[in-house]
Amino acid sequence: MKHPAPTPQPATSTPPVSDETLREFMGYHMKRAFNVVQADLSLTLKPFGLRMLTYSALVLIVDNPGLSQSQLAAAMDVERPNLVVIIDALEQRALIIRERVPTDRRAYALMATLAGRQLYDKAIAAVKAHEERVFLDIDKDTRKTVIAAMQLIQNRSFGS
């Protein structure tokens, strides 16, 4: 016995998810904007074999020769065990070296190698181009205002 061909069902379109309530909050907009910036930054840094954290660490080490691991952890606001992974990755690529601090045998001074400084120069140029691309439609005065507003937020302390 032949079965009739199934009747095609109309495509059910699911209604879009409303985020109207969330869009009332500045933090939600900041997070959504950050997702866009982070995605493009990841693509920008990928050819250099860097991620946002390894790039940030390299920049801080180049800009602050002799920085200790504790200082770097504080500047990046990361836990020391997580920082060790970042430093190890940079050291394995011969972008930085760790030198014992003569006055404190437990501490290491972080220094960029020539290869690290060269990669830094290339990555900084790429990230500047990324910022221009992402923030193309935002004039310099507005950029300064946004940065000032974010700094105000960063300086707030709400306890632990």
Q: Terminal Cα separation, in Å?
A: 73 Å
Task: Kindly provide the name of the CATH class of the domain at 51-150.
Answer: Mainly Alpha
| Secondary-structure element order, N to C | HHEHHEEHH
**How does the helix and strand content classify structurally?**
mainly alpha
Q: How is the largest sheet built, in terms of strand order?
A: 1-3-2
Mean pLDDT, all residues = 92
CATH architecture of the domain at 51-150: Orthogonal Bundle
Strand content: 5-15%
Summarize the amount of helix as a percent range. Answer: 55-70%
Shape: elongated
Q: How many beta-strand elements?
A: 3
- Count of separate DSSP helical elements: 6
Cα-based radius of gyration, to the nearest Å:
23 Å
Q: Report the CATH topology name of the domain at 51-150.
A: Arc Repressor Mutant, subunit A
Main sheet: strands, sense, barrel: 3 strands, antiparallel
List keywords for this structure.
160 residues; mainly alpha; Arc Repressor Mutant, subunit A; 3-stranded antiparallel β-sheet; 56% helix
What does it look like?
The protein has a domain at 51-150: Winged helix-like DNA-binding domain superfamily/Winged helix DNA-binding domain (Arc Repressor Mutant, subunit A), CATH 1.10.10.10. The protein contains 6 helices and 3 strands. It has helices spanning 26-45, 52-63, 69-76, 80-92, 114-134, 140-154, and strands at 67-68, 96-101, 104-112. Strands 1-3-2 form a 3-stranded antiparallel sheet. A hairpin with a 2-residue loop joins strand 2 and strand 3.
Secondary structure layout:
Elements: H1 26-45, H2 52-63, E1 67-68, H3 69-76, H4 80-92, E2 96-101, E3 104-112, H5 114-134, H6 140-154
Antiparallel strand pairs: 1-3, 2-3
